[in-house]
Amino acid sequence: MRFVIFDLEATCWDGHAVGREQEIIEIGAVLTDLYGNRISDFQQFVRPVQNPSLSHYCTKLTGITQDDVADAAPFDRVVETFIRWIDVDSMDYTLCSWGDKDLELLENDCSSFGIDQDWLKPYIDLKEQYHQIKGLQRKRGLKNTLTRENLEFEGAHHRALDDAINLFALYLKYKDSWMY
Description:
Layout: E1 2-10, E2 24-33, E3 38-45, H1 56-62, H2 66-70, H3 75-86, E4 93-97, H4 101-112, E5 123-125, H5 126-134, H6 142-148, H7 160-173
């Protein structure tokens, strides 16, 4: 069994963006085995197609520039590479993210590109499980949760691989508590 601890960044706008669908612009992930050994990392930018120009807000929030995504492959090619990296055909795996928004973004982009979504089914929401484990009612963000757990956030917040690496640290702390 392998765990794919992943995070996504997506197009975003300041305030309510009427009529605009978010698209994934970065995928970051850590692949770990059942024992918590970090096997490898994945990071790729994705070129958005519906709204190809990033908003100033999005660039400021994520640090992802227009040049980063302009030279990137579109979602269908990047997700194909991601699926091969996971090795979904020959390995038992479970996708893990902080909240179900990342899964929803993957489902939406797969749907937009006509990509089969069966590979998304082995999934757990670490945010939901963490709050159940701790008996917390109010859901906290990853960065605040790491502070609460005396884990130092490393790297840049709202960058997919950095967020995945930080989530991996929390995953390791409670590795025997997750339900999958």
